[in-house]
Amino acid sequence: MKLVTAPVILLLLSGCSQSLDDYQQMQPKLTLPGFFSGSSQAFGVLQNWRGQQTLHFSAELCGQWQGNRGDLYEIFLYSDGRTDKRHWQLQVGADGQISGSAEDVVGAASGRIAGNTLYWEYVLRIPQVDGSIDVAVKDWLYLVTPQQLVNRSTLHKYGLTVGELTLSIQQQDANASCTDFIQRYQQTERSAPQA
Known about the structure:
The chain is mainly beta. 13% of the residues lie in helices and 57% in strands. It has a 10-stranded antiparallel barrel with strand order 1-2-3-4-5-6-7-8-9-10.
């Protein structure tokens, strides 16, 4: 029994870390202009450091691209009644490098695509009742089908994991215009966190 258990434990331990290059041959191939064009819908859950679900949410997205430069607009509706939004300005490099900025991101987001996977990192400023908190986000996005993507994020503060987010995104219409959505985005007010 010990001879069987040791290799299984070693296999599990070796699977605890991942490298982006491991996914270079994975299909379908992810491109941001290919997936984040037109309209999409998303659903997700947020868990605290204990693994307990603290919130669930839905989101609407719309993206538009001019070559390798894109704008992705997101509107979030949370289970506690709050509304949030984010406008990503994205840049795709020829070598798979990705950079981005948004109004609630401190500095720039940066990462890289390999195969069906994007890994990137950024610092997100999250509003609190008495101000805001900056958390480091490590984001893994996996394209499962040409129209379906799974996003796993870990949130870190002082080097410790303080939360995890799991998000499923479904592309609705890659050819949809974002004009009306952008108007709705501009009219959407962020809700203040509840005390």
